[in-house]
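Practice problem: Biopolymer transport protein ExbD
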Amino acid sequence: MKLRSLRVEHQPQLMIIPMIDIIFFLLVFFMMSTLYMVEQHTIPVNLPQAATAQQDKPSSINVTVLENGSVMFNQEEIPLTLLAKRVHLEIGKQSDPVFVLRGDKQTAYSQVVAVLDQLKQAGAHRVAVAVEKAR
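Answer key — structure tokens:
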């Protein structure tokens, strides 16, 4: 009678499928968690929709026209008459800044055009109009 070693018969097998599942789970977890780490420092407004909307780079300067007609330069409310001075200061700080004009869809069109006119008169060459992508 021949005795066999139990170690030889019952060697553990490396199961790779559960390891792949765990790796993909960790990958998805870290991808989703990094999406929530990004903060946007903008004022909430209801933007109109456009089919050709594109995402602009995050280092832009936000100029927002609220529903009541007041003008916000980044996070600070300023009168329309002082907007040109602020734009001149920003152009002096940065070589060619991008200004993103964000107008609430309930705002009067003339108010948004007045802000755009002030931006252009102050020397802003790169002005983008923010919209939401149509669904």
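Discussion: The longest helix spans residues 16-35. Students who identified this feature from the tokens alone can consider the problem solved.
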